[in-house]
Amino acid sequence: MGHIFELGTKYSKSMGLSIQKDNKLQDVFMGCYGIGVSRIVAAAIEQNYDEDGIIFPESISPFKCYIVLINQKNNTDLNQKADNLYQKLKSNNIDVFFDDRNQNPGVKFRDANLMGVPYQVVLGEKTLSDGTVELISRKDQKKEILDFTKIIKRFKE
């Protein structure tokens, strides 16, 4: 994941940086190294995936959760509740991706799995009626039903 650059004497000459060796001044031979961000991501993906896509570790995932809104077309209460959740998550510094496309649930779940976001928060007509959300762990697809008001606390733990 790291990389090394052999700089030679290009920069030491231009800066006048030299050392004395055997009673002679010599330009310093330079090099540098670092960690490649894209290489870290590639290594994480190589070690964390399944047949459905990426499974990002929480520490490097671009989002903590992916809101999957199901059958929201012509359902203003559901859309409003989902937008409310999205705003609450953002205001609590929880990185969230909100999938409010008018696609069928299968497309949304497939895309959520492909992106590798650690948690999927599912809202639909059923969750709207009982005041809950379904939380799905991307890593093991374990499902958990949470009270709508406790989702923030769950992500803060």
Tags for this model:
two-stranded antiparallel ribbon; five-stranded mixed β-sheet; single chain; alpha+beta; elongated; 157 residues; 32% strand
Class per helix and strand makeup: alpha+beta
Secondary structure tally, helices:
6
Taking the sheet with the most strands, its summary is:
5 strands, mixed
The gross shape turns out to be elongated
* Oligomer type: single chain
Helical content, roughly?
25-40%
Terminal Cα span = 31 Å
Q: What is the average per-residue confidence, as pLDDT, rounded to a whole number?
A: 91
Compile the SSE list and pairings:
Elements: E1 2-8, H1 10-15, E2 18-21, E3 24-27, E4 30-35, H2 37-47, E5 49-50, E6 53-54, E7 65-69, H3 76-91, E8 96-99, H4 105-115, E9 119-123, H5 125-130, E10 132-137, E11 143-147, H6 151-156
